[in-house]
Design a protein that fits this description.
12 helices; two-stranded antiparallel sheet; alpha/beta
Length: 356
Amino acid sequence: MREECKQTGPSLSAQGYAHQKTKHMDWKLEESAQKTDSRVLQEQEVILEDTGEDSISESFRLLQIDVECEHREGEMLPTGSAMWCSKNVQRKQRHWEKIVAAKKSKRKQEKERRKANRVENSGICPQHSKRFLRSLTKERLLEAKHSGPRLCIDLSMTHHMSKKELSRLAGQIRRLYGSNKKANRPFWIYLTGFTTDSPLYEECLRMNDGFSSYLLDITEEDCFSLFPLETLVYLTPDSEHALEDIDLNKVYILGGLVDESIQKKVTFQKAQEHSVNTARLPIQEYMVRCQNEKNYHSEILAINQVFDILSTYFETQNWPEALKKGVSSRKGYILQNSVDDGQPKELQKAKLLEVS
């Protein structure tokens, strides 16, 4: 027993010494940390004194944000993986996910349909890139500038028009130009009496994307001074002469006028003042009035509707087909039932008499 005590005695005293040394080191570290914290607090107090009340309020604001963040984190689900949502929000979320999935499915089906059409029509009509189609359109329009029919839009009467009327006219110019771009045999368009500082020009820039790059001529000159008077034909519904054909040596004029007050014979009187020939679309020769609720009949068309008629006739050489495209039933006119070969009823009777 004594030998055992002698053997264990030194080991126990060594363990006690090590324990005391560890406690002494911990105490020194704690004292050092307290001194460091005290020094940091003193520096912060000096900074607060230098910065004043604004920094104090900023510090409280940051503390408030921290508290709000802690409050929001407290609203997390126990798993900490998702925010808590009410049943109504969850229902709306599921509904929105269904809509997104349906749109994706629809886009995928449309893409597959277009792909199938390309494969099916690959031997019939080869697909061209947009760049190629744009260059082809530009080539056709520039060719029309040298050898195609010419059409002037007289914009010298816009100074009396209201903002609403100018907006409508700008939209008609856009549709007219769009139809001309799609035509196989386009016209060359002139916008005459058109100044770049006019309200109409600003409206065209606002409403028509790419208006400044339209392939047409814009000039401040009046159409009557731009071309020889004997080559001009002013198209007006008040003329006594029906337009029979489109002559490449003539320049056809459309009055760029949207007048909600319906002032009659404005374009006709302007043509007479300059001793210019006039013509009207052959609506009376190929169409008849139809009954409607308002008993309304009018031959006044928008400039883009008139252009659609001229363009269709220039390609087909068929007035009934052209008039059908430009004159809607709301104008109170329909095609004659007896017209079947592009000839008016009076000419058909005359041909029958000649044969007999």
